[in-house]
Specification:
six-stranded parallel sheet; 31% helix; alpha/beta; 15 helices; globular
């Protein structure tokens, strides 16, 4: 696949890194020579200095041969115009744009992004994607990570095996026997810095981060089995009243009538602005690193501290301070790709990486075959993929025990006729089933191959 990426920042770099590693033909455009040189020096991609919306720059980058254009510059307007130029002049089939300004996305203007007006095939709003991820994580406070598939019927949760975890050192085969009616499958284990798909004879160890694919109605029971029975947060303190903080507070007001929400915002003007927008949320003007401000926010009585500022260090330190002052849990936004590896050691209970959320959303449209959803795990070490099975798939029509799945691939759930099936060795996948699969990075291509249409498959 030939892909042109406009923007060589964190997200653009991450997408280019992922696609180049999979042997795609990638060109990256950015107006910063420093960023372009850095991406040329470290990745097997072509780099071009220029404006991503300019026709001559797009032509140099090979837009006339491109299968996809991805606009992820810092400016919404550049991303949108790049898509328009790619469509009008170069007939690029698929165009993706990151758009931050919510004004463009208001339902009143929903006809803007149509083929006859501004032909953008996929719009990604980081604030909405990350905000929804925060809300899902808060709804399941025992989970380190929460991803939904199959129209929200299937949930993938990352669960930390703490010292008191009841199922540590128990082989997965035995767990299946003990909880035979539980609609959940352990599909991945992060041990140290290594993420792998376990076999039924493997056990979980203290300190492991375990990825479990579960029926939505069985998620809380699954968390309880792992020793996590934390109730949903009702007293929430949010550090940072930016777009994400405002989105989270606004939706908590709508979805949880009993929630008591407080926002600590450093900018006086922004604090006044969001105070006019929110109805039940208390806004405090000050620094989230000021202990007196945190005490004024009753942090000692709070269920969860959610740090959503643009500064990773502020997010980390405010979360640590909140725990020291009596807050039960914390959740931090971490933009730096290197920080998540140290998050738990630093005292962070759960974190969200906006870069990873955006990249996962884009990968869903890059993957070949009938791919309906993708989420990248642990800086791309593995992916959870939802794919639609076709008649030509080697998975269809045989018991899973008879399918020679390679190491690194594990089937977590099957969605058929609005029902979730928890797979075992006797389960047979049928055509049109939606299958949720865990795959390590080196096996993603094989998963794509399993779900490609007949002409491509053969």
């Amino acid at each position: 696949m030939k892909v042109v990426i406009c923007g060589a920042g964190q997200v653009g770099y991450g997408i280019a890194e992922k696609l180049a590693a999979e042997q795609n033909d990638v060109s990256v455009i950015d107006s910063s020579p420093k960023l372009v040189n850095a991406i040329r020096d470290t990745l097997d991609v072509r780099g071009f200095v220029g404006h991503g919306s300019h026709p001559d720059t797009l032509a140099l980058a090979g837009a006339d041969q491109a299968d996809m254009l991805i606009g992820v510059t810092l400016y919404d307007e550049v991303n949108m115009v790049a898509c328009q130029v790619a469509h009008s002049l170069f007939n690029v089939p698929t165009k993706v744009a990151r758009i931050r300004a919510q004004s463009y996305l208001h339902t009143h203007w929903r006809d803007l992004f149509t083929r006859d007006n501004m032909p953008i095939d996929v719009i990604i709003s980081p604030e909405i994607e990350v905000g929804e991820m925060v809300l899902r994580r808060m709804a399941l406070p025992g989970a380190v990570e929460t991803i939904r598939f199959a129209d929200d019927h299937v949930v993938v949760v990352g669960i930390l095996c703490a010292e008191d975890c009841p199922v540590v050192d128990t082989p997965l085969r035995q767990l299946t026997e003990l909880f035979s009616d539980l609609g959940a499958v352990v599909t991945g284990i992060m041990r140290g810095n290594h993420l792998f798909a376990p076999k039924s004879s493997d056990s979980m160890l203290e300190g492991d981060l375990v990825y479990v694919v579960a029926k939505r109605e069985h998620v809380r029971r699954t968390l309880a089995i792992f020793g996590h029975e934390e109730p949903e947060a009702n007293r929430v303190v949010i550090a940072g009243g930016g777009n994400i903080g405002l989105y989270v507070a606004r939706n908590l007001e709508k979805r949880q009538a009993r929630a008591k929400i407080k926002i600590v915002e450093g900018s006086r003007d922004r604090a006044i602005q969001i105070a006019d927008d929110l109805k039940r949320t208390v806004i405090l003007h000050g620094s989230a690193l000021d202990q007196e401000i945190l005490r004024e926010a009753d942090i000692g009585e709070a269920d969860t501290m959610v740090a959503l500022t643009n500064d990773d260090e502020v997010n980390i330190l405010s979360c640590v301070m909140a725990k020291k002052l009596g807050c039960r849990r914390n959740l931090s936004l971490l933009n730096n790709a290197g920080y998540p590896a140290f998050a738990h050691a630093l005292g962070i209970d759960a974190y969200i990486n906006p870069r990873a959320v955006t990249i996962s959303k884009i990968l869903q449209h890059v993957r070949r075959g009938r791919i309906r959803g993708v989420h990248s795990l642990q800086n791309g070490q593995a992916e959870v993929i939802e794919a639609e099975a076709l008649e030509t798939s080697p998975l269809v029509g045989r018991p899973l025990s008879a399918v020679d799945l390679p190491d690194g691939i594990r089937v977590g759930a099957i969605f058929r006729d609005n029902t979730v099936i928890t797979p075992n060795g006797r389960t047979q996948i049928e055509a049109n089933d939606r299958v949720v699969i865990f795959a390590t990075a080196d096996r993603v291509r094989q998963v794509e191959q399993m779900f490609r249409v007949s002409l491509e498959f053969f």
